[in-house]
Amino acid sequence: MTILVTGGAGYIGSHTCIELVKAGYDIVVADDFANSCMEAVRRTRKLAGVEFPFEKIDLTDYDATQKLFDKYQIDAVIHFAGLKAVGESGKIPLTYYHNNLDSTLSLLEAMKSHSVKNFIFSSSATVYGPEAPVPYNEATPVSRITSSPYGNTKLMIEYILKDEVKANPGFNAVLLRYFNPVGAHESGEIGENPNGIPNNLMPYVAQVAVGKLDMIHIFGNDYDTPDGTCLRDYIHVVDLAKGHVAALKKIKENCGLFVCNLGTGKGTSVLEMVKAFSKSCGKDLPYEFAPRREGDLPAFWADPAFAKEQLGWVAEKGIQEMCDDVWRWQSKNPAGFPQD
Ligand code: NAD
Ligand code: UDP
Predict the structure, then answer these.
(1) In sequence order, which residues have a C-beta less than 8 Å from that of residue 295 and are 6 or more positions away?
(2) Distance, CA 296 to ligand 2 centroid (Å)?
């Protein structure tokens, strides 16, 4: 079975390529390097032990996407490609709507004309919206709108896929709602490689640890949580990658529409995360409390029961392993991937 991995040069995609190869799948990777680079592909090939085909292509280009499907016999698509910076999406919403929606539509068109019926989509816990009860459960209806244009693209693509399943018998769409992916491959050879100053907690903390940034700013310590800082469900990227392999089994059962959380079911506070990372890097990391960040929810985590029941998948790695692996990646590659 050959899987097209879009965005396979990126953070989650690269780790998933390795797990797919391990599980015996053939893969083809397509990416335009909007947020990644060839060195990530080279290292992923090496870790996977396979020189899998790579195509540099912008998936919003409908003709190029059709040609990709002409060239390879694809059985299923795992669609990671997309722009993902929440803050940036508020500043350039049209770019986000154009990139994320058009790349998905272009793939679906090419799949239709090549009779490919299996699609796995990288969705996000953000689709539950601010009113959903915690822990987030798949039976909870999605929000009408999310807190960012980025989140809205996830919501809209979920609707597009739901409609396509209704209209196209035999079409399978798996919507995987990720919680907070962190961690890196245990080799320290690949990991998250953000452009500029990171917005997310883990890469920010890692850059303080390596001396690129001075101080961690913890956004809010007056939330109604045990230590006053926000709780999130951090999930190791390798566990997340394995969740995609498990989801392929569901597709083989001809699932139609299948929606599933990928999280651990445990909330961890910002302070706990900083302390765990301090242990990994062997020094107390400097932090200060700062005002709350607009749009942040106090606490959410996944109900992981459905994933266990339906996919037989459970996240196995804990917070300390996540921090150890990020530290290995960051300390081996303080400047991220070398530029080509
Ligand atoms: P990433 O930016 O590392 O990877 C995305 C990849 O897609 C990049 O390599 C980028 O170059 C590529 N890309 C973007 N637009 C493209 C286009 N038009 N054509 C071809 N390639 C394109 O991000 P990631 O963290 O690996 O996230 C993967 C997916 O998971 C994204 O869809 C993201 O929205 C989703 N997701 C991520 C998180 C997270 O916290 N990392 C959480 C929930 C959902
Ligand atoms: N956070 C923080 N300082 C930072 C970045 C993030 O205190 O420099 C907090 C943020 O307020 C949230 C948690 O860390 O409570 C996780 O934020 P992140 O952006 O990583 O993920 P989100 O859940 O917002 O998608």
Answers:
(1) 86, 147, 148
(2) 8
Q: What tokens were used for 47? A: 């870790």
Q: DSSP states of 198-263 as a string?
A: --SHHHHHHHHHTTSSS-EEEE-S-SSSTTSS-EE-EEEHHHHHHHHHHHHHHHHTT-SEEEEEES
Sequence-separated (6 or more) residues with CB below 8 Å from residue 282:
none
Side chain identity at residue 48, one-letter code: A
| 8 A C-beta contact, residue 150 and residue 84 | yes
Distance of CA 280 to the CA centre of its chain: 23
Digit-by-digit pLDDT tens for the chain (340 residues) are 999 999 999 999 999 999 999 999 999 999 999 999 999 999 999 999 999 999 999 999 999 999 999 999 999 999 999 999 999 999 999 999 999 999 999 999 999 999 999 999 999 999 999 999 999 999 999 998 898 999 999 999 999 999 999 999 999 999 999 999 999 999 999 999 998 899 999 999 999 999 999 999 999 999 999 999 999 999 999 999 999 999 999 999 999 999 999 999 999 999 999 999 999 999 999 999 999 999 899 999 999 999 999 999 999 999 999 999 999 999 999 999 987 7
Quote the CA–CA distance of 289 and 14 in Å, as a whole number: 34
How many whole angstroms separate alpha carbon 132 and alpha carbon 293? 20
**Alpha carbon distance 257, 186 (integer Å):** 33
Q: Which residues line ligand 1 (CB under 6 A)?
A: 7, 9-13, 31-36, 58-60, 80-84, 99, 103, 122, 124, 178, 181
Which ligand lies nearest to the CA atom of residue 194 in the structure?
Answer: 1
Determine which residue's CA is closest to atom 20 belonging to ligand 2: 200
Supply the pTM of this predicted model: 0.98
Site to probe by mutation for ligand 1, drawn from 14, 84, 237 as the one with most ligand atoms within 8 Å of Cβ, is 84
Nearest atom in ligand 1 to the alpha carbon of residue 103 is 18
CA distances from 129 to 26, 139, 173, 297, 314 (A): 36, 14, 22, 9, 24
